[in-house]
Amino acid sequence: MKNTLSIFAVLVFFAASSLFSQPDPQRMMLKKLNLTDTQQEQFEKSTFDMKKKQIELGAKLATLKLEMHRLMTAETLDKAAIENKMKEIATQQIALRMNHLNAWSEKNKVLNADQQKIWKGMMLRHMQNSKGDMPGCMPEPKRGRMQRPMMHGLQGDDDMPQQMEIKIEKKINKE
């Protein structure tokens, strides 16, 4: 029994150490840019400001989705109100993506011409490797199977309008 526990402890130790030893992709990208101290500070400020605004925008989006849920579960459907709420949700999702684009643009202004070429190339590769098939859009964080239910109200679902249409059609057909 002690041998099994010892082996298990060693395996956990190695698994944990390998997780922490993996390089941070963002840190590696910034290292390639060879930023000055001033540029580094400006990048950190821009990242902080962007993340802070993402929290605010994400909270607003979660509230709009909650309001949409209330409209969808009402006794009678108010199609005009639902359409307006869908538009508000779409506008909020655009605001989230524009916040990323604005941060990218702010960071780009800090760089010299050579750094801008490297930065643009890295960002294009990042978008191609992610979900970034739309110019200027940063992908949403990857969500694991267990996180999705908990994060559902905080993250923007790109197919939400289609889901709402299906729910509306089902509800109309019942009436």
Kindly describe this structure.
The structure is a single chain. This protein is mainly α. It has one domain (39-134, 143-174). It has 7 helices and no strands. The chain has helices spanning 2-21, 25-33, 37-72, 79-110, 113-129, 147-151, 160-174. Helix 3 packs antiparallel against helix 4. It is flat and about 60 Å long. It starts with a helix and ends with a helix.
Task: Give a brief outline of the structure.
The chain is an all-alpha fold and 175 residues long. The protein has helices spanning 2-21, 25-33, 37-72, 79-110, 113-129, 147-151, 160-174.
Oligomer: single chain
Instruction: Please tally the β strands and state the result.
Output: 0
Q: Main sheet, how many strands, which sense, barrel?
A: none
- Anisotropy-based shape: flat
